[in-house]
Amino acid sequence: MSLIGALNVGKSALATHQAAIQVTSNNVANAGNPDYTRQVARVVPKRDYQLRPGMLIGSGVNLESIERQIDAALEDRIRGSISDSEMASSRQLWLGRVESIFHEMGDDDLSSQMNAFFGAWSDLAGKPQDMGLRQIVITRGEALAGTMRDLRAGLDSLQGDVARRMEALVRDANGLARQVADLNRQIVTAEGGAQGLANGLRDQRDAVLKRLSELMDVKVVETSEGVVNVLAGSEPIVLGDTNRGLAFGQETVNGQLVPRVLIASDQAGIQVSSGQIGALFSLRQEIGGTLGQLDDLAGGLIFELNKLHAQGQGLEGLTDITGGIVVDDPAAALNSTAAGLEFAPVNGSFVVHLKQKVTGLTSSTLIQVDLDGLNGDDTTLNALAAALDGIDGLSATVTGGQLRITTDGAGGEFSFSQDSSGVLAALGINVFFTGTGAQDIGVNAAVKARPGLLAAAGNGQVGDNATARTIADLASRPLASLEGISLEEAYERMINQTAVSASGARTSATAAASVRETLLSQREALSGVSLDEEAINLIREQRAFQAAARLIAAVDEMMRTLISLV
């Protein structure tokens, strides 16, 4: 027992409480920093020493460590909630853009255009000879086709935006992964294998990991050396101080470019199921599905209406017509893949009517379309041309995979009826719409130039309206090309799916944000800085420091007294 021992006790108290005040000051300074983790000075008594047998006395106080108040399991849950919340909010944003493209509540949306188009056919059925009503049908058809093309272009553009945004986010994620690897290296260097922790660097690393979680779902595994390994699924992205890198790539699947996220070091693909990048993956698939539905709707409209129009008759007959569809292999069966027709005809037949304008005499010839797959004699484009060319007064040739039919003389004209095979529509003969889907649908230029060719009749008589009436009812009739549903139902299904997805995204975004805020509140309670609590700590440490200073002053006075006695 000595005054020197008491002086050392005061000295340790001064140093320890001074450090504790600095820790408290650092907490107060970072009170507004959301990425900061509250630090606590762990103070423990120094080792006692023996005065005499059976009697131990304290030797002061030590600052054992400065620790972060953090729960690793809670941090993992927060990173997961951040990924889920960012995915939900991204889906909400992008699906809102899909809804805005369809503009369903406007006056010029697709459903309004379809109603106006089929309404024009209904009006024409009332006065099939009226050239004004025929022009309205053509105008409405052009408006409908233009709307479909615009929708397709809008969705295509959105797909492109998604891909470009995804590429940018992958670059950002790669930069964040590089920062994690760099911070791992700095932490190992700073801590140097000792027990002390580089708390500031660890806070920086946690903040980077949170930002990375905004972009993609990651799993973080901390090692005993203090570094973290970052994995996407089972594929490591960061191993210690090595960043394997993230890269954006695309591959062709079924003729479509599909984006991929790759490990840059070995080009291995990784599955991203959450975060902003995960949201864009799922959105690309959904937008692709909507594009497919729109193309199916347009394709069904084109083929089904053309089947009716091709076998109808206008106010004037045909003298020279070329099919608008190219057959890849004129020697292949028309319903085979080698023929390459978007709309495949079926086994059946159609009738060709040849009329002499001067005499008014009409002859009708049945043309068989054998596509039953039996006997190896299925109809090819060459065979069909030969059958048509065999009709007296007609000529038919195949050039560049397209069928051309003409009359042999100036005094004849021809028309078609009773096409049970759909071959005329499949080859683009006497059709109303051109194209194969929403990207290229349009009104036949020949019909636009000569409205008299618009087929309203079904029996060849000028005043007949059978074809116009049938087309007017087409929107609500179940169609085989649309798997037994009508054009109206196909459109409603597409719009409803888009609306349900958007509504679900809004609900998910609200729920995910609530979970995220709850977890962040839990973290704030544990790891956040409370200024009231820090004020109390500051006062306590200040009083302890003042007491230690007074102790040293008292010991100093005692030592001076002793020295004066010598």
Report on the architecture of this protein:
This protein has 566 residues and is of the alpha+beta class. Helix content is 51%, strand content 17%. The chain contains twelve helices and 19 strands. The strands form seven sheets. It has a four-stranded antiparallel sheet with strand order 5-6-7-8, covered by helices on one side. It has a three-stranded antiparallel sheet with strand order 9-10-11. Helix 2 runs parallel beside helix 6 (275-310) and helix 4 (131-191) runs antiparallel to helix 6. The longest helix is centred in the first third of the chain and has 61 residues, at 131-191. It starts with a helix and ends with a helix. The mean pLDDT is 90.
Helix/strand layout:
Blueprint: H1 3-29, E1 39-45, E2 49-52, E3 55-57, E4 61-68, H2 72-102, H3 110-126, H4 131-191, H5 199-215, E5 219-222, E6 228-232, E7 235-239, E8 242-243, E9 246-253, E10 256-263, E11 269-270, H6 275-310, E12 320-322, E13 348-356, E14 362-369, H7 381-389, E15 394-399, E16 402-407, E17 412-417, H8 423-427, E18 433-434, E19 442-443, H9 445-449, H10 466-472, H11 487-527, H12 531-565
